[in-house]
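Usage

Read records sequentially. Each one opens with the input sequence:
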Amino acid sequence: MTHTSGLFPVTDSDLQAKGRQKMYGLALYTSRVWEACASTDTRLCRDHGLHVDSERVALEIAPALAAVRTLDLEVFRAGQRGADGQRYLDLQKTDLQGQVVLGLVLARNADIHLPATLDLHVDRVVGNDDGYQVMPSWLTYDRLPAVVRANKRSQGNKNGTSEASHDAYRDAVGGHLVIETLLDAFAFFRRCDPALARSTPQTEELAYFPLPATNTGHGYERRHPDQPNRADVGAEVRRLTEDVPPAGSGREISYRLDSEGTAVYCGHTVERFGLRSAFTESAVQIGRDVRAGYPYTAVATNGVHHPITVGADGGLWADGVVLEDYPFPQPHRHPLPQTWLAWWKLALDDPFWYRKQRLAH
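and closes with the structure output:
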């Protein structure tokens, strides 16, 4: 198999051998992290709800971080001379995947040098009683243990982490899915020298990639270094979803709630066979839908339905009243306001769930 030379080919034979070994290791360790996400002790407890376990994932991350650090420091930095070495450092300052590599150094140093445990953040779990897959993210920088944030390189602290790595963690690692940062690191090193990545003889595909499909139905899962990350795909999904009117024959708005100063309109989409499904939506999107010809109605306290229109100034109106002043009732039975607002937050945070809410009926 032939390779392009890449951005920073490693020419020293000993460093080439080390680089190939560590790239193979990074692929292996990434696959183990992926497998660990699907084999935790996460379970549904009758009394306490979902018990989320991510300890095994955290344990499997350690060798992956060590491989990233070795590739960066002892293969590519050590393998470049003069101007090429400076070009490599400059690329890490501007390249998003290079920033991920630099930011992961902070996590690796914390694991090796500090008496602190880097916990993972898990706000997405998919599956059912037959098994759950956790999708852990790195803690945002401000939630890291104080000892990690204070561990900065200085004359008296040679094991400290550089200010550049602190900044890179804050910008490119914290809050991002763990698996995607490892895939980003692999992709960065592969762009630097494709010859270091090992392929399987039968398929010419990268060893250990793509990662096995989990069939969890949570919208999109990145399983290959060459695939775009979930955030980029999600942004495109949201854009396309907003451009298409909702499914169903119309939407009935029953309530208006407030979420941090933003008006949230809540109600039900009228589907086929009299079925109805809950939705939450913003005034801006409602205006876009109405202008596209999709019907919305405001449901008054007495049950009368008033069609929503868009005025010349772009404002929304119902029964001669600006929608933001329309006298909607307050939810007095399930779903209660906290439930509607939780659905609203989910629609904001998860574009795949938002697409399902609007279109998959």
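Summary fields computed downstream for this record:
- The chain has a mean pLDDT of 90.
- Residues 80 and 160 are 24 Å apart (CA to CA).
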